[in-house]
Write a structure and sequence with these properties.
The structure is a single chain. It is built from five helices and no strands. By secondary structure, the protein is an all-alpha fold. Helix 1 runs parallel beside helix 3 and helix 2 packs antiparallel against helix 3. The protein is globular.
Length: 102
């Protein structure tokens, strides 16, 4: 992928992490940061959103943008940690869009 696309992906993951950093365990935050530092964006994205999907309120994250990022990372074709991640993520995005403030 082009450098600009990788930067876009990294910035989305980082900003998503920063918006929920106080709601995640220190270990979860450190894992996502580690994957980002190693340019393992698929692992960072999937790991982060597996954690985010367990939270009650993520209205400050553009989940539609997350769908685009996930597709750029080809997580819709294959995942890293959870074989059903993409299915769960799409359902999460769709259900979040029906809630107030999203």
């Amino acid at each position: 992928m082009e450098k600009e696309i990788w930067r876009f992906i990294e910035e989305f993951i980082d900003s998503s992490l920063m918006s929920v950093i106080g709601k995640l365990s220190e270990d979860s935050v450190n894992e996502v940061k580690h994957y980002l530092a190693c340019d393992e964006f698929e692992m960072a994205f999937e790991g982060l959103f597996l954690e985010i999907m367990q939270l009650e309120n993520v209205s400050n994250i553009d989940l539609r943008q997350g769908l685009k990022v996930g597709q750029l990372l080809k997580l819709n074709e294959g995942t890293v940690f959870d074989i059903k991640f993409w299915e769960k993520f799409v359902a999460f995005v769709e259900s979040s869009n029906t809630m107030p403030n999203n």
